[in-house]
């Protein structure tokens, strides 16, 4: 399941991949420090290094872009007013698990992204297994691209997005408790994996999916915990 250049996926209506719209464009590779997040420098002047200047992670949180790992982020709906902040933060892919389609587009423009996927999930009962698996697959396919930074969102960014992020980490071999700590480390209001949405049977199914589809992980450094600010 490596990167697929110049190929568009659009599958609507099937039980497994309902609502999926995913596309890829070959990224322009830029070598960057592993643990740095890039936000627009607020001071005018040339960016001599060829990319926007690094900012503290507190700037991310103030923009409601909550880091989980070096390459996974979670938060609320990505509406028009937030696209510039997301791009300035180095986000390359969006995975929307809310009930409404997003406004982000795929392309090479300043407010475009390398990948955009929509897999709506309900938050009023146990997650539908096939729809959840489709969302987890979308996260994985985006994350394994070179230099990808993936933003997972729902509407408020407190339940469905954090739960999918948590379950993806569990699928990749992280213990549920540790995965929950990672999700909540910089997003204390997150509610990953509430009992009415995720039970032990679903957790077991997610682990089976991960062992079959995600492991060994092609980009293990993307799962490293986002460093605490010092």
Automatic annotation (TrEMBL):
Residues 130-198 form the Tyrosine specific protein phosphatases domain. It comes from the Bacteria. This is Dual specificity protein phosphatase. It comes from Isosphaera pallida (strain ATCC 43644 / DSM 9630 / IS1B). The lineage of its organism: Bacteria, Pseudomonadati, Planctomycetota, Planctomycetia, Isosphaerales.
């Amino acid at each position: 399941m490596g990167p697929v250049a110049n190929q568009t996926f659009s599958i609507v209506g099937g039980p497994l991949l309902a609502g999926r719209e995913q596309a890829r464009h070959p990224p322009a590779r830029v070598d960057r420090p592993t643990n740095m997040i890039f936000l627009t420098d607020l001071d005018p002047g040339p960016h001599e290094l060829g990319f926007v200047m690094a900012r503290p992670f507190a700037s991310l949180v103030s923009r409601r872009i909550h880091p989980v790992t070096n390459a996974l982020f979670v938060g609320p709906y990505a509406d028009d007013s937030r696209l510039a902040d997301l791009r300035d933060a180095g986000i390359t892919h969006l995975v929307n698990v809310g009930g409404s389609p997003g406004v982000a587009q795929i392309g090479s423009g300043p407010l475009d992204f390398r990948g955009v996927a929509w897999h709506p999930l309900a938050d009023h009962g146990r997650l539908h297994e096939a729809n959840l698996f489709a969302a987890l697959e979308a996260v994985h396919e985006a994350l394994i691209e070179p230099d990808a930074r993936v933003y997972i969102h729902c509407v408020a960014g407190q339940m469905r997005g954090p739960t999918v992020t948590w379950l993806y980490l569990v699928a990749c071999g992280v213990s549920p408790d540790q995965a929950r700590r990672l999700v909540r480390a910089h997003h204390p209001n997150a509610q990953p994996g509430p009992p009415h949405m995720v039970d032990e049977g679903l957790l077991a199914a997610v682990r089976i999916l991960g062992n079959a589809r995600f492991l060994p992980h092609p980009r293990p450094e993307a799962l490293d915990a986002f460093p605490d600010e010092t």
